[in-house]
Specification:
Helix content: 25-40%
Strand order of the largest sheet: 9-6-5-4-3-2-1-10
CATH superfamily of the largest domain: Glycoside hydrolase, family 3, N-terminal domain
Distance between the termini: 56 Å
Number of helices: 20
Radius of gyration: 27 Å
CATH architecture of the largest domain: Alpha-Beta Barrel
CATH class of the largest domain: Alpha Beta
Number of domains: 3
Oligomer: single chain
Largest sheet: 8 strands, parallel
Bound molecules: beta-D-glucopyranose
Amino acid sequence: MKKSELKELMNEMTLAEKIGQLVQVTPDFFNQSGEITGPAAEWQLSENKLFQIGSVLGTHTAEQVATIQKSYLEESRLKIPLLFMADVIHGYETIFPIPLALASSFSSELTEEVARLSALEATRAGVHVTFSPMADHVMDSRWGRVLESNGEDPILSAELTRGYVRGYQGTDLETETERLAACVKHFIGYGAVQGGRDYNHVDLSPIELYQNYLPAFQAAIEEGVKLVMTSFNPINGQLMSLNRPLIKETLRQELGFNGVVISDWNALEELLAHRVVGDKQQAAAEAFEAGTDIDMMSDCYINHLAEYSDLDSHALDEAVYRILKLKNELGLFENPFRGIQEEAKPIEGALRIAVKEAAMKSFVLLKNDSDTLPIRTQQQVFLLGPKASSKDILGAWSWIGKTEQAIDLAEGLTEQLPHLTVGAAESWAEPSEAEYVKLSEEAKASDVVILALGESSEETGEAASKAEICLPEYQIKLVKRMAAANKNLVVVLFNGRPLDLTAIEPYAKSIVEVWFPGSEGGRAIAETLIGQHNPEGKLPMSFPRAVGQLPFSYQAYSTGRPLTEQNQQEKYVSKYMDVGNEPLYPFGHGLSYSKLSIEAITQSAEVLTEDEPLTIQATVRNDSAQAGNTTVQLYVEDQVSELVRPVKELKSWQQLTVAGNTTAQCTFTLTAADLGYVHSNLTRYPDLGKFRFFVGLDSQNTLTGQFELCEKSEGL
Ligand code: BGC
């Protein structure tokens, strides 16, 4: 449809029809045969109002979409097609590893491919828009939603977010009908909920906001993301659904976003519970004034926006136009059944291969003493633990995912190991003493014991905050009992957040973090455990030593009394009395079966200027026969800065394959812009002067050098 036709359509719309476009409901509103309950009953929507609504969220099948769209187009006066949105977070039916796992790949090529393939499946089910990527900056693994995030580094998160947006949206939504429009969320600050408790209060300084929270959203906007979802939380007392300065000034003017702004689920009605509005009419009026275009699943707009006597008709037209424009960009006026194909070519086979590859790239080998891994296929292996034969490996967002089709670890290992015994202790209960005796005997008779431990998907994701992030007592006990029976103990961890592994770490020879690995999890893990695949993932979030270290980031700020190797015994330094300051496993950590290390670093100059970037070369050495992949990381520290700054910040990373018993090199280019940070005037620019840089295979063990940022090249 041409722009002029869209405008003509808008001229025909009544006030009620315009407001209807701003409303989003669930499919059950359209399925009102039988007793009507829940919000659909409370809202008391007339048929007329229902067939003015603009969008639907959370359909399950192509048939459901087709039925709703068809009846809507028959009943509605102007026949403006409905927009269908859904949470396609890491796959639709075929489930990829959770986003935090994908972030362990440090690869935006991977997030792009995962998003492309997820869109392929979701569009066939009639979905037009996904509520993904989640670009929230996170530092607190008590918050269950860290599993949907890209981890604790803002630059890494921004890069991975770019990949997701590119993969979902492609280059032209109208012609590429197997792509989805993306909705980046949650704008903004949601990851900073106090105490890691979901839906809690947020208080953030503007500098933190600009430095760490905005970059991933900015990246999504630069990639052309079509929608932004506001978050549930307030920022400095102002709820995001009402936050006019952050929506209208920061998001729209500064970041240049001109797409659709949607609230989170029922967030407008929740303004009443926050006690910042007195009734739904005030909620509707203030949210609209602040810049919320779509009201997701509350009746504030549909039942109360028209009552607002100062409703600005021009602003209303702009909001409606943004929604109609999105429908038009998706080609819905020409084809309201976009993506739904009568005879679709099966894609599941190809998807499952991609899922397995993505899973393998996301596993992180946390520990591997005495080369316990890889397992030799002739070894006698005993597998047990609550996750050994569990298909609960898809993660909290796999609402359409087919759990029964997931490959669990026992199934994966059975395909590879002729001498495998799978033990009991599969349930989420503690073995009895008699069972323990049997398990210990089996463990003693084996060469290697694999313990599959972790969290259930219910314990992770939205509304799954935890005050303790250790494994449950019975799992810790299982580790100790099995370690007493067999020292070759391998722990495979399925979880959605960095856990506190301090209690089990000394007992396990090897620990492999597999997150929630998705539909092909068991196979991908089995191939990794036997060395057909060499682990290469790196932690996108630090694993703390104790929950009391949270919130935590490797980007610790300088303090006036830093803890050093020399002053460990002093009292008046910045430290805990009971645990160290460092995490158990730092950001960027991840081992390989190959023996990889940074052998040397060289730099092109001692000085960096605006016209002359610095190049830094790193040589990585492999002291083993097996080729390995790794991610080489470059960090920087500003020696003297206007504001207190982190002692280490990731600036760049490179992925490298190092053949057996050789070295390989990679080159980083560091520009003046890379050294910029948000100053007290909220602008990003670098400080002239001295810097240190660090190159490592994680954020802690690094080789270091220095350079100076000068205004001009010497001789100019
Ligand atoms: C979540 C969003 C999600 C939305 C729609 C909310 O509860 O916070 O992330 O996209 O529901 O399902």
